[in-house]
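Q: Hi! First time doing this. I have a protein sequence and I read that you can turn it into a structure. Is that right? Here it is:
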Amino acid sequence: MARVIVLVIDSFGIGHAPDAEDFGDVGANTFASIANTYFDATQQAIALPHLTSMGLVKACQHASGSIFPHQGVETFKGAHGYAAEISTGKDTPSGHWEMTGVPVLFDWGYFTNKSDSFPDDLLAKINTATGYAGVLGNCHASGTSIITSLGEQHIQTGLPICYTSADSVFQVAAHEEHFGLDNLYRYCETVRGLLDEYNIGRVIARPFIGDNAQNFERTGNRRDFSVLPPAKTVLDKLVSAGGEVISVGKISDIFAHQGISQATKATGIEALLNATLDHISSAPNNSLIFTNLVNFDQDFGHRRDPIGYAQALEAFDVRIPDIINEMHLDDLLFLTADHGCDPTWHGSDHTREYVPVLAYHHNIDSINLGERQSFADLGQTIAELFKLEPMAYGKSFLSALNFKE
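A: Yes, that's right. Below is the predicted 3D structure, encoded as structure tokens:
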């Protein structure tokens, strides 16, 4: 039985989606913006030979009509398409759940006030349940800027830094040594239990280290406390059928650890790819290796750093042959994204975009998958491959890949 590897290039959109106007994101294009800004700054076209040969640039051009500077390649081998999202939000859980066959068709709750974001009664419940006298922050904020502005006060007072964003999240930043990592996790678990009536998707623990505002930095010990998907995902079905689902990075947190056989944490794109390679070398047949490359989003998209994003993409592209060379003859590789996060767009939030759908196996030709109406097409394709009960949403494109075990 074949194995499947899914690499999620977190936040890598390739052009504004059909409903982008509803989100104020008409004109956003993460990939094109990165390529154009990189060329303007360096007078060098972005070099992604392996991704380009799999059809990434073609997918972006078909999705958005964008023409941008990139180093061309002569040979193409891989399936390429672009997918729209039908979930109501442009957040991480919605994107991941939809790609595993369960779109979010309800509205998340949000803390919309830019300041005094959290209701007084909620804060009172949190303080009572956790034993803390209050919180710092209580606003919309960038995770890096808020620890710079409030980190020293946090150390002095011992109060957690609580903030949110345009996503359905309650985020808690705290110093790993002064507040304690385990204490931060316990605090977040307690808050998670108080948010059901608000329909908030995630509580995110954001630990940091450093001595003062000049050297505070977040660590890789982030943890997401998510609600469960509203229905069984293709991950659940694969595990129930006796298969293995191997999570690398924050995937297990996104799915509230449901439908996961084993989970591996790692910090940084290189470490995440190395962990993925380790699993490819050892995973049994009938396995799904599911990796989220969060740093593209948190380090470059949200921080509005298109040059850093471009350089990270080039470094990632160099590692793709490592992945391909480790694949068995009957393995199937997918590369996609969960939303956009155009680093040249206003604000610091996600952008509503098409995402790439790239597929590769050793005997594949150049195949145009065209526009996919839902991220759920990926989950349906995986369900068909593993001969699972079909998902309620999505249209499989397995037959188009000419894939034979």
